[in-house]
Amino acid sequence: MRLNKTITKPRGTNDILPGETEQWQYIEEIIRTVCRVYGYREIRTPVFEHTELFQRGVGETTDIVGKEMYTFKDRGDRSITLRPEGTAAVVRAYLEHKIYAAPQPVKLYYIGPMFRYERSETGRYRQFHQFGVEVLGVHSPSIDAEVIAMAIAVYQRLGLKELALHINSLGCPQCRVELRRKLQDFLRPHLKEFCPECQGRFERNPLRMIDCKNKECNNLVIEAPSILDYLCAECQVFFAGVKSGLDLLGISYIIDKNLVRGLDYYTHTAFEIMAKGIGAQSSIGGGGRYNGLVETCGGPPIPGIGYALGLERVLLAIKAQKVPLPPAGCLDLFVVTASTDAEQVAFEILAQARSQGYAADKDYTGRSLKAQMKYAGKLNARYTVIIGENELNNNTLAVKNMLTGEQVAIDREKLTEFIGGK
User: Which structural domain, as residue segments, surrounds residue 287?
Assistant: First the structure.
């Protein structure tokens, strides 16, 4: 008889277990705090959307749409895609619910899982979690600088250091007419040396050839014409305003003429934030302006800018830089009972402590007194409350500070007052 094999998680996915979830919650709490102080409100969109949204919004020449989307037909024979990124869905909701009729700009953020079928590597998964912000309804270099500053603020509050901000301007569609011609003239003699994907981009979107992750392709575009040399006067002024805003905020940056990002909808400002020690792909977040995206998705010509960061990548950077994280599963108190007679009192103490907001627990497996104390230590309890025969007779509790080892006797009614004052 053949034995059933154990079912394991799909490749490119992760189980986030107790002990790890607390770290995620800590990061998410910091993110939500930064969003609040910058005036952003949360939006939650479906995990799947109509495929056309990403084909139009992300761009059919992108790797995401061309190779990485999880797409399927539902029972109504409609093409559905698990969201590979968050911006297109936010723009769809912005239009569908007529949020553009509200006072502008609208500042939104999201946190949730995304899905891309790509090769798994350090910090990159097929189901990954992304935090992103979108500002819709304003075209101003100062808001671009603020969005970048907000991204930096998230990393700084998490304790990350040695970050490098790379910025570029992708100009407007008018700027890129001349650039496209110059790029094609430069690339044409070497076209056969590029990877098949880049050869396919040559006519459709040659600017994307600069963004290729293939090292051989990277070497071929080192001397390629730069968009910065072809910015129109208006785009030059806008990019100067972004740099001026960053200077005013004391944020250093590197102008990276080869930074084009991987999505078709970007215009004007593009940026990425790099961190050391997390593998070959050092980016931990990035974004840019997308003034044509709302119109592409069927709406009026409304400007926008946003950025996104992968939570897995951020956790990788935190661990690489040895940034301390809060201990997992920390209890305020753990109740230890020396006999079955103490069980009722233990339940009363748990109820009292929990009603006042303290994290409290007890043993339910019949462990010995010594084993209960050891278990309390594994749970990182701040205090253990010991109830033995003496404590039952005198209506007292023995309370031990697990950090210092100090143990005192207190009246039962004063427990929460005691631990709250420490």
Answer: 21-174+232-320
- Please check whether residues 136 and 48 belong to one and the same domain: yes
Count of domains forming the chain: 2
- Among 33-37, 354-358, 418-422, top mean pLDDT goes to 33-37
Buried b (16+ CB within 10 A) or exposed e, 197-226: bbeebbeebbbbbbbbeeeebeebbeebbb
Which whole-number Å values give the CA distances from 394 to 34, 390, 399, in the listed order?
50, 6, 14
Asked if the structure places residue 2 within a domain, the reply is no
As a three-state string, the secondary structure of 34-70 is HHHHHCCEECCCCCEEEHHHHHHHCCCCCHHHHHHCC
Q: Beta partners for 114?
A: 128
pLDDT of 61 reads 66
- Tokens 């490749």 belong to which residue? 11
The pLDDT tens digits of the residues spanning 351-363 come to: 999 999 999 999 9
Residue 65 predicted with pLDDT over 80: yes
Is the CB of residue 95 less than 8 Å from the CB of residue 273?
Answer: no
111 forms bridges with which residues in the sheet? Answer: 131
pTM, full prediction: 0.87
- How many residues are present in the chain? 422
Displacement of CA 407 from its chain's centroid (Å):
43
The pLDDT confidence band at residue 280, using thresholds 50, 70 and 90, is low
| Among 12-26, 122-136, 262-276, 404-418, the least confident range | 262-276
Task: Report the distance separating Cα 360 and Cα 353, nearest Å.
Answer: 7
* Percent of the chain as helix, strand, coil, to the nearest 5: 40, 20, 35
Instruction: Report pLDDT for 64.
Output: 82
Q: What are phi and psi of 300, to 5 degrees?
A: -75, 170
Residue carrying the six token digits 């709406």: 299
Count other C-beta atoms under 10 Å from residue 13's C-beta. 14
- Check which CATH number belongs to the domain holding 241 and give it: 3.30.930.10
Contact between residue 66 and residue 55 where contact means Cβ atoms under 8 Å apart: no
CA distance 227 to 249: 26
Taking the C-alpha atoms of residue 53 and residue 254, their distance in angstroms, rounded to an integer, is 33
Alpha helix ranges (H) inside 114-195: 141-157, 175-187
